[in-house]
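Section 3.1: Structural characterization of target chains.
Under the original work plan, the team committed to producing a structural model for every single-chain target entering the pipeline before any wet-lab resources were allocated. The record below documents one such target. The sequence was received from the expression subgroup and is listed exactly as submitted; it comprises 134 residues.
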Amino acid sequence: MNRYLPTFLIVLSCSILLCLFSCNGLTKEAKEIAGNYYNTELSDTQPVMELGKDGRCVITAIKPGVLTYSVEGKWNVKNDSLILDLDPSTLKVTGDESLVGYIPTRMAQLIHSHADMSLQVERDGVVYSYRRQN
């Protein structure tokens, strides 16, 4: 038996355990922007993007007094873009369901900037600003 094998197995086991407890698949950039984001023009109390540290997200659309709906999914940051993989089967609606339009299963939004308390992304040529509150 190789005399280094027990040491190798201990190091390998520790590496696997460390990864299980600390790896959630998020990139370094994603870990920096994880949090709850608000569009303060729509609501100061309900986030429109909940980007979890575990890679899960909830995206909420708010039409004040008319309709609010949310969809769950997974998220990450890749190549300077916020990537959202959404599951339309998780749709939750408050208000007139007939007003809910097409829900994409995948969205990519270019990140213009992010700081401790803000995030700006571009979608379809429009820059959206969000305030972070954890």
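The beta strands are 35-38, 49-51, 56-63, 67-78, 81-95, 106-115, 118-123, 126-132.
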